[in-house]
Design brief:
The chain is an all-alpha fold and about 80 residues long. Helices cover about 55% and strands about 0% of the residues. It has a domain of about 50 residues. It has 2 helices and no strands. The longest helix has 23 residues. The two termini are about 40 Å apart.
């Protein structure tokens, strides 16, 4: 079994993106949350989430759909 490195990276960034996006969404109305006017936690959380989902998608696409079956060996007496 070969582990594709995109799978744990995608899972990590997706989890981190969900946490940061939810934190940015929960604190978007509090004073001092956006001193520049841009909810930075919300923006970067969404960016991390998009990157993580893209990595998971690439890892899933790279997997073979089914393992190769056993090789068929001709039986004796079949070649006439």
């Amino acid at each position: 079994m070969r582990l594709d490195v995109r799978l744990p990276i995608g899972g990590f960034f997706s989890l981190l993106g969900v946490l940061l996006t939810s934190y940015g969404w929960a604190t978007r109305g509090t004073p001092g949350a956006t001193p520049t006017g841009v909810p930075i936690d919300l923006v970067w959380g969404a960016a991390l989430l998009v990157f993580g989902v893209a990595m998971l998608g690439l890892a899933r696409r790279a997997r073979p759909s089914s393992p190769p079956g056993p090789l068929s060996v001709p039986e004796r007496g079949d070649d006439k």
